[in-house]
Design goal:
The protein is built from no helices and eleven strands. It is an all-beta fold. Strands 2, 4, 5, 6, 9, 10 and 11 form a seven-stranded mixed sheet that branches. A four-stranded antiparallel sheet has the order 1-3-8-7, with no helix packed on it. β7 and β8 form a beta hairpin. The chain is globular and about 40 Å long.
Length: 123
């Protein structure tokens, strides 16, 4: 599976952005796709995940109610709609894929990663 993340940019606090993770490969629909982020000098942390079976979504507490993950199988794309952005959301955002994954927040469960897209929120 190959992943390509896009959609990052510079936005003011309170604003919105939508990230896209385009997946390619014959078995894409067997993968749970998640978003993680890594701020400068910090560990990569879980943000949200969408299960391979299209049933479940998972969110970190820090983004619940502000971020929404969605999946369009026909496009092999997972989106992350980010609203009410805060300066703490500034990070490099990565999408990862875990075959038949449970939506784990553990980055080691994800076998494939996209290249990352930068989100910068100015206060």
């Amino acid at each position: 599976v190959q992943l390509q993340a896009s959609g990052g940019g510079l936005v003011q606090a309170g604003g919105s952005l939508r990230l896209s993770c385009a997946a390619s490969g014959r078995t894409v629909r067997t993968y749970t796709i998640a978003w993680f982020r890594q701020a400068l000098g910090k560990e990569r942390e879980f943000v949200a995940a969408f299960s391979f079976n299209g049933i479940s979504t998972y969110y970190a507490d820090s983004v619940k109610g502000r971020f929404t993950i969605s999946r369009v199988n026909a496009q092999n794309t997972v989106y992350l709609q980010m609203n009410s952005l805060k300066s703490d959301d500034t990070a490099l955002y990565y999408c990862g894929a875990d075959q038949y994954g449970s939506g784990s927040s553990d980055r080691d469960e994800y076998d494939y990663w996209g290249q990352g897209t930068q989100v910068t929120v100015s206060s």
